[in-house]
Every structure is written in C-alpha cells, then in structure tokens.
Design brief:
Elements (H helix, E strand, L loop, with lengths): L4 H23 L6 H8 L3 H7 L3 H12 L15 H33 L10 H13 L9 H12 L1 H8 L6 H12 L7 H13 L2
Helix pairs in contact: 1-2, 2-3, 4-5, 5-6, 5-9, 5-10, 6-7, 9-10
Length: about 210
Amino acid sequence: MSPTRRELVEATRGRILEAATRLVRERGANGFSMDLLAKEAGVARATVYEHFRSKRTVLDELASSSTGILVIDNRASLNGDPLSALRDMLGAVCRHWEENGDTVRELRSLVAVTGTEAPADAVAPEYLAAIVAGLDAGGHLRTRWSTDEAVDALALLTCYPTYERLRGAPVRSADEIESLLAMLAVSIVAPNAAVDGVAQSAAAKST
C-alpha cells in the first residue's frame, strides 16, 4: 500500500524537525538559517515554509515537543515505605540528569530563545507531591514543614540547576551528588533511625 498524502506530509515535517534538532545540537539555536535547515533536511526551502512560517515556529515546536522527555517519570510506584520512595526518587533524578544533561542544556537554550514556559529542568510537581504526601502520612515529615514547603524544597533539590551546581569542580559523580541530595533531603524528614538510612544508603554508593 502506498503512503497517503497525510503520511507523506507528516514524514516530511518529521524530517525537518530531525534536521533542526541536529542543527541546534551542532550550532545552537541561533546558528542556522531556514536555507540551511532545508539543505540539512533534504527538502526545498519552500517546503520548509509550507510546514513552518518562520525559524521561530521551528524552535517553538522543538521546545514544546521535547519537554516531556526531561521530566522524571512520575509513574514509578509510590506504594510501600515512603522513605524508600524518597531515596529511590533521588537516585532516579541523578541518573536522569546524568544521562540527559546534553539534552537539557540544548532545551534550556531553546526555551531562552523562544520564551517557552517548559519544565525543561524540573521533576513533575505531582510526583514530588506524592512523595511528600507519603512522608506526611507515615509521620516522617518534620513538624516545622508544611507539605507545600516540603514540595518546594524537594523541587529545588531535584532540579537540573541544582544538579549542575553540585557537579562542581572537581566534578562529582552522579552517586556522589545523590549522597549530597540525600543529606539535604533529610532536613525535611522527622529524625528517627529509619530516616538515617536515606542518607546512609546514598552515601554508601559514593564510597
């Protein structure tokens, strides 16, 4: 069966966006023209303009279509021990930023150029709220913290700018950063023997 016109149009659009992604990675968001994009995609300049009115619309599309891959998966199981959920979340965050650092930086450049309000460097707030709700229900949240404050604190601890800052010089590994985050996260958790395991478990990974 031959492809329909709709399928051909979608394939062409996809090829243009793939080419734009490569150019952004190689040259930056401001480092290419629509002519170069057409050449990179292997299509006529007019074809690019049939799909996108301007370079800005190309960058907007890239920014909006890429944001989902940079948000930590919030479908992970939150059942069971809330302290284990917190520890596992910190580990997942560090692995995510370690593996996606280049993509995050590219997307942050796109967001800066396009003005798109995109969660390019943050954990899904619903996921953080579920972590805090579990801690609160289990009596593990320090009394001086409200749940909203605890969510805000975890959002700050787990965002990419914090990860990037903690990489520091000399450069720390993802496991070392996880250990630091765990020690900081303990400040929102009620002190007891079980809580110490959050930081100790992460610290053991970095030794």
